[in-house]
Write a structure and sequence with these properties.
There is one protein chain. This protein has about 600 residues and is α/β, with parallel strands linked by helices. It is about 65% helix and about 15% strand. It is built from twelve helices and 15 strands. The chain has helices spanning about 1-55, 80-85, 125-130, 165-170, 175-180, 185-260, 265-415, 420-450, 460-470, 470-480, 495-510, 575-585, and strands spanning about 55-60, 70-75, 95-100, 110-115, 135-140, 150-155, 155-160, 175, 455-460, 480-485, 490, 520-530, 535-545, 590-595, 600-609. The strands form four sheets. The protein has a six-stranded mixed β-sheet with strand order 3-2-4-5-6-7, sandwiched between helices. The chain has a five-stranded mixed β-sheet with strand order 10-12-13-15-14. A two-stranded antiparallel ribbon has the order 1-8. About 15% of the residues are buried.
């Protein structure tokens, strides 16, 4: 009867537990099924939207393609829906192929690219990489006008907006029906985002409520399970009590059988037991004696081991001391060997440097002798050249003056007897003699430049002010504007620096376009030498708004007697910039220019501190 009640109670408990599990499982499955159904609908709609976009956009080279390729960026499951859709639909009458790309740099040979904002791809980077490749970009949940076509989740469906400027830039055409249903302003786009956020919040609230209901159900199930557990424990305790009673009955039954044995058998058994006990006691006593003897031996062995440990410790101390001494000796030997090797190495390098230095000194001495000879020869040749230039320019002036005088006398006394051709020839001869005189004077002046090495401090601001007074007539006639910015005080020849600035300013005025007021800007900056930080120089710049110098002629303008224009158009001897170059180099500097035709020129030159 007891076992029957236990079986019924256990069956009842199992039924209750099964019913609770079924209710919980069915409720959870219903919620999950509903969520799964909504998600599948959204996925299907997403694929339909992408296919519709592709169908309503015109590609300039679509007729040349054998099939239509759609790319998906990142680990997006949308690729599965698009592949399923591609089995049932075509785009522009062509079969559809779906391709996945993990990186933006690998995107190529497709017509449409889909990317979801949740995978954190940068839209500007994507647009820069696909520009000019005839790829339509469709984004999801990006900002307004971020993509070419942008989708946004609104409830259980999607809305979209079109960036017409980007689409037209890639030469795509848009169907009117696609434009008709597109969102046209950022405000509408923001409202959709707000609506989506409200929907998401509502869904989240519903989800929280469902989770709360599930938690209550779980608590109820847990309470029922606890009650069932208590009942099972009570049933187990009752079963244990019944088992104990059964064992007691069995023990009483065995005791009654023992009492039925004969008394003699009990006596025999008791004697045998007594005998066994005595044998065991004797065995125990013998074992105790053996144990005592073993303990004595063990104690003796322990004493011996202690003595051995003491000896071992003493030997270890001796060994440690010897090892320490050996380590010290070894360390000293290593240091001595290293010192010897270092000494040998230093000696080798010192000897090699001595040999190299001796060799270099011999070569340097030989080269110095050659340089000295060359400098002596060069100095002699320079003197000869200067003397030749001076004599040539000085002695040529006398016959030239004679020619000019006689031409003047001929023109004055016999000019009326010449016909027009003769008068014109006389004029050409007179003009040529004047030009020849100017060239000789310029050559004489060029030969004298750089002779003076006694430099004084020169205030460039004062020098420019005095130069403006000397050129006052020319400046007023041409209405030239000269702007000066904080020029420094330099160490040099005042006469030569004055000629340098005069030539550069005169060129800026002379080579100006017609009907243009000349403008000249003079400035200076302080710079350090890139090769030697302890040295520095002033870098001057003279900028004009003249006709400029073509790039192919900029290399030769500093050569003597080089002209880029005819004398009829621009007068001059063509030696002014050669003077500038010689003056700057005599002061230890450099001169160069930057110029663009019809945009003016800027001349730069440096003067060391």
């Amino acid at each position: 009867m007891m076992y029957k009640r236990q079986y019924i109670s256990t069956a009842y408990t199992n039924v209750i537990a099964i019913l609770l599990c079924i209710l919980t499982t069915s409720f959870s499955a219903k919620i999950k099924a509903q969520e799964t159904s909504n998600e599948e609908v959204k996925r299907l709609q997403r694929a339909i939207f992408v296919f519709n976009f592709a169908q309503q956009i015109g590609w300039p080279t679509i007729e040349e393609q054998p099939n239509f390729k759609i790319g998906v960026l990142g680990p997006d499951r949308t690729i599965l829906d698009l592949k399923a859709m591609s089995l049932r639909r075509k785009i522009h009458g062509k079969p559809v192929e779906i391709v996945r790309f993990q990186f933006v740099k690998n995107v190529k040979d497709i017509q449409l690219l889909y990317v979801n904002h949740k995978y954190n791809y940068d839209m500007h980077y994507i647009l820069s990489k696909i520009s000019g490749k005839n790829i339509m970009l469709v984004g999801e949940d990006y900002n307004f006008n971020a993509s070419m076509i942008n989708m946004v989740n609104v409830g259980d469906s999607f809305e979209y907006e079109i960036n017409e400027s980007r689409i037209e830039k890639e030469r795509f055409t848009i169907a009117p029906t696609l434009e008709k249903h597109a969102i046209t302003s950022s405000e509408k786009w923001k409202r959709l985002y707000r609506k989506t956020e409200k929907t998401l919040n509502k869904v989240q609230e519903d989800k929280d409520k469902q989770e709360a209901i599930l938690k209550d159900k779980e608590k109820q199930i847990q309470f029922q399970e606890e009650k069932i557990t208590d009942q099972l424990e009570k049933i187990d305790s009752k079963e244990g009590e019944i088992n104990r009673r059964n064992k007691k009955i069995e023990s009483l039954y065995s005791e009654s059988e023992i009492q039925q044995k004969k008394y003699k058998e009990k006596v025999v058994i008791e004697r045998e037991l007594e005998k066994n006990i005595q044998e065991q006691v004797a065995f125990i006593k013998s074992q105790e004696e053996k144990i005592i003897q073993s303990n004595r031996e063990i104690s003796e062995q322990n004493e011996f081991l202690e003595e051995q440990k003491e000896k071992i410790k003493e030997q270890e101390n001796v060994l440690n001391q010897q090892a320490s001494e050996l380590y010290t000796h070894k360390k000293v030997n290593i240091l001595l060997i290293a010192l010897v090797l270092l000494t040998l190495t230093i000696s080798f390098f010192v000897y090699r440097n001595y040999r190299a230095k001796k060799k270099y000194n011999q070569e340097l001495k030989h080269k110095n002798q050659e340089i000295y000879k060359q400098s002596v020869e060069l100095e002699a040749k320079n003197k000869e050249l200067e003397q030749f230039a001076y004599i040539a320019s000085h002695d040529l002036q006398e016959p030239l003056n004679t020619i000019s005088s006689f031409i003047g006398l001929l023109a004055e006394d016999y000019g009326e007897n010449f016909d027009e051709a003769g008068k014109e020839s006389m004029t050409f001869i007179q003009d040529a003699s004047v030009r020849m005189k100017k060239l000789i004077d310029a050559l004489l002046e060029y030969s004298r430049l750089g002779r003076s090495k006694e430099y004084d401090t020169v205030d460039c601001n004062t020098l420019i002010q005095e130069l403006k007074k000397d050129l006052k007539v020319v400046l007023e006639k041409t209405e030239t504007k000269i702007r000066v910015k904080n020029l420094p005080v330099v160490n040099g020849s005042e006469i030569e620096l004055r000629l340098l600035f005069q030539n550069l300013i005169s060129n800026g005025i002379k080579f100006s376009p017609p009907d243009t007021i000349p403008e000249i800007d003079i400035a200076c900056v302080q710079k350090n030498d890139s090769e030697d930080a302890s040295k520095g120089f002033w870098e001057f710049s003279v900028k004009d708004n003249g006709i400029g110098i073509p790039k192919e002629h900029q290399e030769r303008i500093f050569a003597i007697f080089q002209r880029l224009h005819s004398r009829d158009k621009y007068e001059g001897t063509g030696i002014g910039l050669a003077h500038c170059k010689k003056i700057v180099e005599a002061h230890g500097g450099k001169i160069w220019l930057t110029s663009k035709e019809k945009s003016g020129s800027t001349f730069y030159f440096t003067i060391p501190f």
